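testing teh design pipeline on a random one, pls ignore if ur not involved
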């Protein structure tokens, strides 16, 4: 790869430096505990030398003779493959071919690769508005646990993780971090080629919501949009995942958005496999993932998310990923960084272009370089390529039939309507806002919301499900100014499903001239659009959150500019109100939901990552007390973290 170095390394931006310092101080005890666990795991043996002869014989019994010999000698790296393949998900169907490519490349590099295990992968696009969607968020921690099962055989010196979509990459990374002594590379499948334009798709959805088009016409439009192998091309959670793996240095440069089943995609997969051999323990380039994902790298991930208008789901997932590495971040950190990080992209739903247009215009290599040159990213981080993020400011090209070559990212954007440099951003902030008040704390994605719609004051209309909202909409009961409050949608209530069904209806009402907004303890994800929405309200109603005190007709003020989420009710009246309750029995059974009760009972708040696991704990009780003191000083801390077992 070609070296990419600045003439003069820029000073880090003062806000990025301040947020990083605050996170580092806040995480000092739990990060130290995590690194202690990592060191202990490494000392206990990260590969086959720790296994008995019987253990080892079971581990390679079905292997080809030549590979079995390598494993017997215990000298060359053994690389685990953990895959989210299934052929129902368009984004994961291409992964079927990857293990064969990986095994051949690892073998040529002198190692051995084994398919260690598969993890579940569900599609939010299929389950939207369906009972199965209530398993979606919890599938992330299930994937992390399945990853742990795959790696528990202790046969491996490094691991390759194959996954793309919503909860899958975060789950794989959380699982990887609980085996933080192992090097890790992530291998994407790439986006499908572009289909129907995003503006046309949105127009047809709104017409269907208005009853002006039938189901057949809608299905034809959706089939023209989602039409081939690969990731959906809008900039939702799946493609935000891929950008994050690029900017965190867990992908090879430029790997995120190369389309599936192409020679370059296959060559990148083989190159990643070879790199896994190079950085595996106990070699000289040994690079454990638990050291890659540190405080600076987590800040880089937040900056990248903000600069590209990525999915609001990562205000949950990045918190959970950080927690798995002993790092504590919160929405204050996102909010402060958002004020300093300019928006460099316009990708649907924040613009009209899709992810393929973004990649063609310069892609993540361009974004990383622009942010580094502005001092908005930490360059001095460890990645799979070494100890500088600047090595990832490159684009991948194919030389010959199978060889990948890297070149510096383009000096200028290929399309200013999609991608811009730091000197000419689309906006001077990252488009993510923290709002708070007597209704709790929530996040707003305003990058696609016009300034005149970012502040709404209107009576509250209360709904306990998105189905109840849609019933009122189709009955013509919502043609007025209002703030829709959709409650009992948090992780403890029903697993925190995404509420995408609300988007076209709310957009129609806003287009008709009504002042409307959404407030919910549920999720909207990367598809948050042009209607103001305060989402992930925390604490949720089912955990005693104040949103449960709201009554129909209460005047509510939602203001992204001032950071306000407030019920305009006299303090004495508000204090005297009792929490609303609702019977959630219907959300407890059917479509496998009864199997996930343990998650609903144990899950932390959205701002703490909506996790079923806690922060790493030191071994001594005295240190645990110190952790309690540190965490108690932080708002909305998850006290359960202090009593759960260490990683």
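output:
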């Amino acid at each position: 790869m070609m070296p990419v170095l600045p003439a003069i390394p820029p000073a880090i931006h003062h806000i990025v430096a301040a947020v990083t310092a605050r996170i580092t101080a806040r995480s000092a005890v739990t990060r130290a505990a995590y690194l202690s666990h990592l060191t202990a795991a490494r000392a206990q043996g990260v590969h086959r030398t720790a296994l008995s002869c019987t253990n080892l014989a079971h581990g390679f019994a079905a292997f080809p003779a030549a590979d079995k010999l390598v494993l017997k000698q215990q000298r060359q790296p053994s690389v685990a493959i953990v895959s989210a393949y299934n052929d129902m998900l368009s984004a994961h169907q291409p992964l079927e071919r990857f293990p064969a490519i990986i095994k051949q490349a690892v073998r040529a590099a002198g190692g051995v690769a084994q398919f260690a295990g598969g993890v579940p992968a569900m599609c939010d696009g299929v389950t939207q508005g369906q009972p199965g969607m209530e398993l979606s968020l919890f599938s992330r921690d299930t994937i992390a646990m399945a990853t742990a099962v795959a790696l528990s055989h202790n046969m491996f010196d490094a691991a390759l993780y194959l996954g793309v979509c919503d909860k899958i990459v975060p789950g794989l990374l959380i699982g990887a971090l609980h085996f933080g002594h192992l090097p890790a590379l992530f291998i994407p499948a790439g986006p499908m080629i572009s289909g129907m334009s995003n503006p046309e798709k949105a127009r047809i959805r709104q017409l269907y919501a208005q009853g002006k088009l039938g189901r057949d016409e809608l299905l034809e439009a959706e089939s023209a949009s989602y039409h081939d192998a690969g990731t959906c091309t809008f900039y939702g959670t799946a493609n935000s995942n891929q950008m994050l793996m690029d900017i965190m240095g867990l992908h090879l440069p430029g790997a995120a958005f190369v389309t599936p089943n192409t020679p370059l995609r296959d060559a990148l997969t083989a190159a990643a496999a070879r790199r896994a051999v190079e950085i595996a323990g106990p070699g000289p380039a040994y690079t454990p993932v638990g050291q890659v994902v540190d405080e600076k790298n987590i800040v880089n991930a937040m900056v990248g998310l903000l600069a590209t208008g990525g999915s609001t789901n990562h205000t949950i997932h990045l918190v959970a990923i950080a927690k798995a590495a002993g790092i504590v971040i919160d929405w204050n950190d996102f909010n402060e960084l958002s004020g300093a990080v300019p928006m460099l992209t316009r990708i649907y739903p924040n613009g009209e272009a899709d992810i393929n247009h973004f990649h063609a215009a310069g892609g993540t290599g361009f974004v990383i370089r622009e942010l580094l040159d502005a001092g908005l990213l930490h360059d001095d981080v460890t990645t799979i390529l070494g100890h500088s993020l600047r090595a990832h400011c490159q684009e991948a090209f194919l030389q010959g039939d199978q060889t990948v070559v890297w070149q510096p990212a383009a000096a200028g954007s290929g399309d200013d309507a999609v991608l811009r440099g730091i000197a000419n951003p689309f906006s001077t902030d990252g488009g993510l806002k923290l709002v708070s008040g007597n209704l709790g704390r929530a996040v707003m994605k305003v990058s696609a919301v016009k300034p005149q719609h970012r502040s709404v004051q209107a009576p509250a209309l209360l709904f306990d499900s998105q189905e109840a909202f849609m019933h009122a909409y189709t009955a013509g009961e919502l043609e007025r100014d209002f703030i829709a409050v959709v409650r009992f949608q948090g992780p403890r209530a029903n697993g925190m499903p995404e509420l995408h069904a609300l988007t076209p209806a709310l957009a129609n009402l806003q287009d008709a001239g009504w002042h409307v907004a959404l407030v919910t303890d549920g999720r909207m994800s990367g598809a948050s659009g042009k209607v103001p929405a305060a989402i992930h309200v925390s604490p949720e109603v089912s955990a005693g959150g104040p949103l449960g005190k709201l009554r129909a007709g209460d005047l509510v003020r939602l203001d992204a500019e001032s950071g306000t989420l407030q019920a305009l009710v006299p303090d004495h009246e508000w204090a005297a109100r009792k929490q609303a309750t609702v019977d959630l029995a219907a959300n407890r059974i059917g479509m496998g939901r009864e199997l996930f009760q343990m998650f609903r009972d144990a899950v932390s708040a959205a701002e703490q990552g909506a996790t079923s696991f806690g922060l790493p704990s030191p071994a001594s009780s005295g240190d645990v007390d110190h952790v309690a003191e540190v965490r108690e000083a932080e708002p909305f801390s998850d006290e359960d973290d202090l009593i759960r077992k260490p990683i």
